Amino acid sequence: MAVSLSYDLLLLLVISSLDWSSTPGSAFLTDHNRMTSSAPVEPHFTECMSRDLETFRCWWSPGTFHNLSSPEELRVFYLKRNSPSSEWKECPEYSHLNRECFFDANHTSIWIPYCLQLRGQNNITYFNEDDCFSVENIVRPDPPVSLNWTLLIVSPSGLSYDVMVSWEPPPSADVSTGWMRIEYEIQYRERNATTWEALETQPHTQQTIYGLQAGTEYEVHIRTKMKGFPKFGDFSDSIFVKVTEIPLRESAVLLTLVLTFGVAGILILIMLIVVSHQQRLMMILLPPVPAPKIKGIDSELLKKGKLEELDFILNGGGLGGLPTYISDYYQDEPWVEFIEVDEEDADCGEKEDQKSSDTQRLLGLPQRSVGCFSADSHPDDDSGRASCYDTDLSEQDTHLLAASLLPGQPEDEEAFLHPDEKAPASETNKSPLIQTESEGKPTWINTDLYAQVSNVMPSGGVVLSPGQQLRIQENTEKESQKKGTLGEDTSKLNKPQFQLLVVDPDGSGYTSEITARQISTPPSSLVPGEGYQTIYPQPMETKPAAPSEPNQSPYILPDSPQTRLFAPVADYTVVQELDTHQSLLLNLPTQQPPPPCLPQHPLKAPVAIGYVTPDLLGNLSS
Amino acid sequence: LKREIKKIISAVWVGIICLVFSSRLSTMKAASICPNDQTGCHLLPLANLFDRVIQHSARMHGISDDLHSEFELYFLPSKNQIGRVSRNCHTSTILTPNGKENAQRIAREELAEIILKLLVAWRDPLWHFHQSMSQHDEFTNFSSNKSLEMSDMVHELRKGVLKVVEKMQMLGIISNSVGDTGSPEALLTSDSAEWRFMKDYDLLYCFRRDSNKIQNYLKILKCRIVPKHGC
Q: What are its GO cellular component terms (chain B) (predicted)?
């Protein structure tokens, strides 16, 4: 069977190829375009069509044969091939005007092939086998009727809208009995457009057209076809659809759109900025907490507990040590603020009113000065007053001494005056002192308001040795009291107070052990510009003898340095100047330390004024 | 814990499905009870059956039409085939009404019987056609699938029409003379040798025509029996 089938297929191919070239007649069943040729065309059928699957019509054309004088000469015959013994019958209804042959319902049979032929005079037959057909294959239904449209919905922007088009099935088609099943195809276009838009074929009698633009007019028409068969009927009459625009809604929608997009864009920009400048913003919003950095003290060193180094650093290690140290450690941190010792209390206002000094505050001494300090201003010793600079201290502070520490607790009035064994000379000497003091800014050069720290108390207080001057002063005071003029003088001398001199010309507040050693070394090693010079009580010898010496020899006799070294150095004087012989000129030539004091204070080395290091403490106490 | 959750979920699913099914069943039962129209109320399920069957036949006709046009593309037959073919369709022996009036005039039982005869007549030829289609390499898969679908549809449609006939007989609309599946088959099998010699194209042409007949007859039958339900 397969072999026979293949043979059949081959035959079919061959035959079809042959027939294709030689088919002269109409092929109206398959809607082939008729070839127009110059050759004479015989009479033929142009089209056969059925509208309702119950009747059908056929049209013919006489062709170009000119021997046909009248149209009535051609006759239509048909054959129904439902039985082998069928014969040709003539057309039941002619319409010669239209050259049409109409087959009514009685003569129409569905599903049965019809063959038509034209016969002329003399029984000339023009027959083409291609003109055989079945009626169901030539059905072209009528177009629908009563088209109308309704507006379904308009878009929020007002620009587009949807339309529902509805219609009625063609009256000729018998849809109600189900004899014909019709499908509809809608086509629409803009008023002035050339091409039609077609929607999908569907069997219902209504359909929605989506997305029509407002303001433009549309043309809509519909055509029908039988379900399952390919041929479409004619188009219906067109209807016109139009919806006018609503501008207000459009603008409102546009506005909202613009607003939302603008806000979104701004938000994105802000986000980008925040992300890109995160570091800076973090710095601005959450600045780093500055840790306290004290000038000259590195917290690292403190942590390590290396006080020696700290001392060294503070004292300059050489006088230029600190600044470099500072620069080394805190070069990279510009925001590091050094806490500077501020001896000038803002409340005070006038410098002269300051009575207490840093030392007093450090030591926690009762404030002698009046009005400057409140209880809470300097609560503890560590309130940033760890360092006292020469620059910070004003000059009048040098007058203040820790008088209360002195083992006699001399009153304020008993300031160290210029040592004057001579009672009358003391007065005169006082006067220059007073004068200098009253000058307003007595320099520390003119005063001997230095005390030697003899011992450090466990409570933190520093014990000063009474000093030669004090003894002398006591003596002189007694003498002056007799005179009665001391009170005046002493009252005037209220201002200066005993004070631990915490002076460093270079800014370091402490004399380290090294400098102390230096001080303790023979005076020849005294370097001008050093902090303190221990003035050895050279005048010790001369004091009791010559209080009436008019001239205060400013010399330090370098003869007996040894004795001086081991003598309890209670007095300090300031080097006034260097004379030509490279000797130091001091202000206090005649001073006689009280002998009984000597054994009491077998100091071997001068003590650094100010804070006492534990090493020095050992020296002191020994 | 996970297993327990899964069990619970599966149980819930089963419960939901059961509920759905029961609701569907109840609705189906409810559908048989008509609220408004009591005269034609009992015919509603019949109308539904008819609708389903008509849809089925429409689909069958569509497939046959596709296959036929495909064959026309591959093998352009000459037009004189049409005249020749009409004599060769093996179902031409079955007397069928050739027009709407004729179809409306004959008895319902006869119409139903004709439909069944046609369906029976095409069962074997389509099956063999599918076999021959699948063997040839030049046919695409699309075509072979369609031929298989076509032969299956004939079976399904026949069963559906039988059910409709049963329903009608149950309702007393038609007499019990219809439905003797044995006898039509017996009639045809003697003549069935004819279709073996048919060519594929002719077979397709004939089936296309007959499926259209079946579709039309079913529609007419429905509108004659249950006219109120969508005609």
A: extracellular space
